[in-house]
Amino acid sequence: MPHTALYRKIRPKTFRDVVGQQHIIHALCNQVITGQISHAYLFCGTRGTGKTSIARILARAVNCENPQEGSPCNVCESCQGIFAERNLNVVEIDAASNNGVENIRDLREEVRYQPTQGRYKVYIIDEVHMLSTSAFNALLKTLEEPPAYVIFILATTDSQKLPATILSRCQRYDFRRIAVKDIISTLKNYLQAQNVEFEDRALDYIAYHSDGAMRDALSLLDQSLSLSDQKLTYDQVLDMLGAVDRSRLFEFTDALNACDSMAVMAVIDQAMDGGRDASQFASDLVRHFRDVLVAGLVSDPNAVDFSAEIAAQLKEQGKRVSPQKLMDYIHVFSETLREMRFAPHARTALEVCALRVCVPQTLVEMPVTYAPPASTVTQKPPEAEKPVSTITSDITTGTLDNIAASWDVLCANFANPMRSMCTQCGLEHNDGKLELIMASTSIRDILKPKETLIREAITDKFKLSTPPNLAFIVREGYNKTITAKTPEIKVEAREPEPEPELIQPSIPDDWAVMAEPADTTQQIIPDDWAEVVETPAPPAEEQTDDWGSVGMEMATDQDW
Questions:
Q1: Sign of CA pseudo-dihedral 225, 228, 230, 234
Q2: What is the CATH superfamily name and number for domain 389-483?
Q3: How confident is the model over 140-173, as pLDDT tens digits?
Q4: End-to-end CA distance of the chain
Q5: Residue 147: is the preceding peptide bond cis (ω within 30°)?
Q6: Can you tell me the distance from the alpha carbon of 555 to that of 560, in angstroms, rounded to the nearest whole number?
Q7: Helices (H) and strands (E) in the chain, counts
């Protein structure tokens, strides 16, 4: 016989077999018993919670010849025909592949014909949110007023994509995630019926990783049993999932809390050497941080969906690690998990993230000195030397000013397109906090998710123990080159210096005549100049140029 998947083999056949959806089962059973069956149902919920299974049970129940407390008998000819898929009154449609308006038109034509066997024709449309807009519009009238013998059951995992006109025509039932204890009970009953030995930790881990989906849990169990049919062990489940032992997660969290870089790297090395996946390890860490946070803050032990042993360990660790640290861990490792999808080396990204959490605490004890260039070194007396300073967690005003002034240098370290976005912005220090100024909300929407990356770059650049606070300010029409702040130049007021006193030099006696002012009203002309003065100048046309002869005389004169 060919192998049948486990989730198909133990699919519930009656309403009593359904796990974790009692609020829906009670309502549907009452409708079948009283005969007040609606013409359209909408089943919403996450994957593997029983939407299709309950739709098939309801289709058999409304056509069953001998229903038992609202559930089908699964013995009559109608139920057997539906099981064998030879009954044409129950039609299942996959809306993911039949999402066109032509498929809905064919359905409208089929609705006109009455059922050949039984009382109702049931149409189960799975993944109904995949229908196109035209298909939804074509279905509206038929869904609102179908014939009395037609029932529509719509199933979807994303009800937000359905039009409001469809939602208003259906009775909506929201399926809940199945509790861990219910999943463990179902898996345990199956293994005991098959006489398979198992470890409780293995079932606990399968239920934990199924994320509330029974189908996922059964698929994981089926895959784990393929490793060994005789016994189900915890190590088999870990090998099959590529996951890390939960004890390693507790050790890693304690190492992060203590900022022990060696212990952190040791846990990562052990996980990677054991063949575990780095992305899976990061995902398990994020979930573990969340579990510790919830266990530490929730006082009611029944509110935590874990086994008693694991819940006690989580609660104890929640007392050692502060909630603020756990929330920071969740944020940092979630960002790293997204980056690991595109990183060439996922393990390196994980290690850098873990060490980054530990490094700020170790930097507090590292002394920082400044060595000026050799050309500027000057000898100072011993009393003028300053002691070596150490980094503290306080961010002074001067440090914030330096950060704002070095914004362009920080932008150069970013990769495009983030670099081009940051260079359009300006960083200002205003009243003890840093403000990133930008011109539009679109730039803010792009840079806001990168706030952690910017703060960490500032922390690494200036060796800070804690990242500074950063505010994103939008100023319409902001231009960095024009609106950048110009440093004010303070000019100290000085008292005016007294003007120097002019000292008159001593004048000799024989200079007295020259010192007296001359009378410029009369010009004294010598007598022998009279003829020269009185001789009129020759006319312009009679003047001759004698410089040529003078030049010849100078050229032939030996003295020259």
A1: negative
A2: DnaA, N-terminal domain (3.30.300.180)
A3: 888 888 888 899 999 999 888 888 989 988 999 9
A4: 136
A5: no
A6: 7
A7: 26, 12
